[in-house]
Amino acid sequence: MPSTCYISIDLGASSGRLLAAQFDGKHLTLEELYRFENAPVVRGRQMHWDLAGLWRHIQTGLRTAREKYGDNIHSIAVDTWGVDFGLLGPGDELLSDPVCYRDSRTDGMMERAFAIVPREQIFAQTGLQFMQINTLYQLLAMKLQNSPLLETAQSLLMMPDLFHWLLTGVKANEMTDATTTQFFNLRSGRWATELLNRFGLPTHILGTVIQPGTKLGPLLPQVAAAMGLENVQVIAPGTHDTASAVVAVPAFSRPNERPDWCCISSGTWSVMGVELPKPVINEKCLSLNFTNEGGVGGTTLLLKNIVGLWLVQECRRIWSAGGSKYSWDQLMHAAAATKLLVSFIDPDDPAFLAPVDMPAAIQSFCQRTKQCVPVEQGSIVRCALESLAMRYRRTLESLEGLMGGQIQTIHIVGGGAQNRQLCQMTADACQRRVVAGPVEATAIGNALIQAVAAGEIGSIAQAREVVRRSFPVEEYRPQSSAAWQDAYERFLKIAP
Fold it and tell me: I want to staple 176 with a disulfide (CB 3.0 to 4.6 A). Which of 93, 99, 240, 384 is the partner?
């Protein structure tokens, strides 16, 4: 049968891509059409996302899609990272480029927030992990700085909502990304307006909340004409990239049963967790600082956000700026050649959120915690990767405690699934079977939700059957358990 083509626009905090997914009724095939870098731009005292530049890249990618797939394109959908947003003023004018979550304006803002509304009360309403990057603290920073933008704003659109608005003219807030704000109530399925009122933050800027799979409508006439795309629909997927990625986990779903698998969406961030039928909002979850975020199909994702391959990405950037341009393969070979389990960092230490010099930050942490300080590039990379694997184990133990049972399999999806060293380290540290792949899980999940919306796939369980038929995976079994156990006890002393 003829294949239907779905276009996934997947924007990450370090790169973006447009991919064409063709579905023939049984298998899904994926082709990358266009890829581009994404990085915040410092203007004045703030770090902004270059929205106009990203929009130009999206248009270039859509023209490429039109040239190759023409009238076979059924729909388009956008997913991005969470927490960041743009504000529209009178006449739907964009008031400013969105500010990057790594901007320093939220430094100390959680403490300011807790002085107004206690931490426990914020968690009781939202169930979200406390991170200073959350949208709540970005808005509070604007209020305390008397931002004229906040006073003028009439609509708040999260990053994927902004691009869907640019494509269709429709203003709506998709649920999965809305849950990353820390002012969405998952249990009631609506904005936590009472919480915002206590902070004195505007609620009129919040729009209609829509579910993944909602048909937003056709492209704006001027966009359709410029792109050469007629009769193409725009669908809201799980617009938070984690939600789309989880759809593409090739696990066997058991409705109404406790899952025996968890997943790690591995990229700039590592997002580790399980898919559940309802949120877990209790004192234990609060004390462990886990997050409840919206999933696709009425599910809740019980997750931990962990600083991920950002650690190595930033090391590579710093070394390249200094004239040492290493490929990923070269860095992994160098790491493999160094001694294992020597030094560790706490990946979630604030020192690693946005350091000027990541290698120096890693060395400083090791020195501060009285460990052997890594000097060579390979030993620094190994330190970062092994520390991530150890953090995964600590998170796994917490997940099992929250769920009341053992997890048998860890699925790693996303770019980190290609990093064989990290996958094996994860199996060794956690002493669990690891299944790696698919790599482009977010784009695949995005496309599968479009196929469900089109009626070509009946459910998320069927979508996962398509993933298992269509994409290879690689399996890793744990090794060297004694050495990793001893090292884990050392890790806990510096990263409890």
Answer: 240
pLDDT tens sequence for the chain (496 residues)? 568 999 999 999 889 999 999 999 999 999 999 999 999 999 989 999 999 999 999 999 999 999 999 999 999 999 999 999 999 999 999 999 999 999 999 999 999 999 999 999 999 999 999 999 999 999 999 999 999 999 999 999 999 999 999 999 999 999 999 999 999 999 999 999 999 999 999 999 999 999 999 999 999 999 999 999 999 999 999 999 999 999 999 998 665 677 899 999 998 889 999 999 999 999 999 999 999 999 999 999 999 999 999 999 999 999 999 999 999 999 999 999 999 999 999 999 999 988 999 999 999 999 999 999 999 999 999 999 999 999 999 999 999 999 988 999 999 999 999 999 999 999 999 999 999 999 999 999 999 999 999 999 999 999 999 999 999 999 999 998 899 999 999 999 999 8
Q: Under a CB-based contact definition with an 8 Å cutoff, are residues 485 and 435 in contact?
A: no
In terms of DSSP bridges, do strands 233-235 and 215-218 run parallel, antiparallel, or are they unpaired?
antiparallel
**Helix, strand, or coil (residue 197):** helix
Q: Is 348 a catalytic residue?
A: no
Active-site choice (84, 97, 241, 428): 241
CB contact burial 376-408 (16+ within 10 A = b; e otherwise): ebbbbbbbbbbbbbbbbbbbbebbeebbeeebe
